[in-house]
Write a structure and sequence with these properties.
With 145 residues, the protein is an alpha+beta fold. It contains four helices and five strands. It has one domain: SH3 type barrels (Roll).
């Protein structure tokens, strides 16, 4: 491949290739094994992953929504990357509405990795909008009678 000039092994090249082409998605945590891993469902691709992972599995909770990049290499499922903030379970409806919009746009129910890359701005935009609302300070409303 193109990375051989850096004296990388075939496995290292394959890992870099996976990291370079892995899109972010929105995934629901359905099971957590602290310090070992977690089971997540990619809500956009409707794909389940048994993730091998140590640190995040100690803090995430069942039902939370993660903005992450799950993938598989050599039979091992892992997250290439994950945002530092998990979303509340209540936003699942918003994610499914995004999925409905995406499937209407592409004309099929099957969302692929290619589609996630095409819609990466919309996916990231939804995540950032939800974070903005989540971290907005409470507002005090004055009622004048």
């Amino acid at each position: 491949m193109y990375l051989t000039e850096f004296n990388l092994t075939a496995e290292e090249e394959q890992l870099l290739d996976v990291y370079n082409r892995c899109p972010y998605s929105l995934c629901e945590v359905i099971e957590v094994k602290p310090g070992i891993g977690m089971t997540i469902v990619d809500l956009l691709r409707r794909r389940k992953y048994e993730i091998v992972e140590r640190s995040a599995s100690q803090t995430v909770k069942r039902g939370q929504i993660l903005y992450c990049a799950p993938t598989q290499l050599a039979g091992i499922n892992f997250n290439v990357a994950m945002s530092p903030y998990a979303l509340r379970p209540i936003v699942k409806r918003d994610v499914l509405e995004l999925r409905d919009w995406m499937t209407e746009e592409i004309g099929t129910e099957r969302i692929t990795t290619k589609h996630l890359l095409e819609f990466e701005g919309a996916i990231r935009g939804l995540y950032l909008y939800i974070l903005k609302v989540m971290f907005r300070p409470p507002q005090i409303l004055m009622v004048i009678r």
